[in-house]
Amino acid sequence: MKHIDFLDKAAERKAQYEEIGVNQTFGLAYFAALRNGNDRIDFSGALHKSDTEAILADCRRFGITEITVSSTWSGVVERVAAFIDGGWRLDGMVRVKGDSVDYRTGERIIVPALLLRFDQEGGVEND
Question: Which residues contact 26 (CB under 8 A, 6 or more apart)?
């Protein structure tokens, strides 16, 4: 995965997310993706409605054009729709390395995730 130098340097000096103007959910997902060995930032935990705009802004700020969402929390469909309204497109499913480790193999478990790619136009169609 592409490193974000700004976040890596902030982590070295133990900066708080608020202090550097980065959404905490975005930052935690970035570092989890590095730790888990994923190619993209994966949002595996709760995605709160109040975080959506800030996450979209952080993706633009750091040039992130692909993300995955493996969260199984309720409301995730609404969050994905907000990403689509923000210019992203749902581009299928992939498998990513999850946060848990298989105790028998010592390897990260593989979980399904939605793949989203930045697509200027975006938008959820009304039925």
Answer: 41, 51, 54, 55, 58, 59
**Host domain of residue 73:** 5-118
Write phi, then psi, for 119 (nearest 5 degrees): -150, 85
The angle at the Cα of 30, spanning 80 to 27, to the nearest 5 degrees, equals: 90
The number of folded domains in the chain is 1
- Both tokens assigned to 1: 């995965």
For 61-106, the pLDDT digits (tens) are 999 999 999 999 888 999 999 999 999 999 999 999 999 999 999 9
The alpha-helical segments, DSSP class H, found in 5-123 are 5-12, 17-20, 24-36, 52-61, 76-85
- pTM of the complete model: 0.89
**103 lies in a domain?**
yes
Structural domain contains residue 127: no
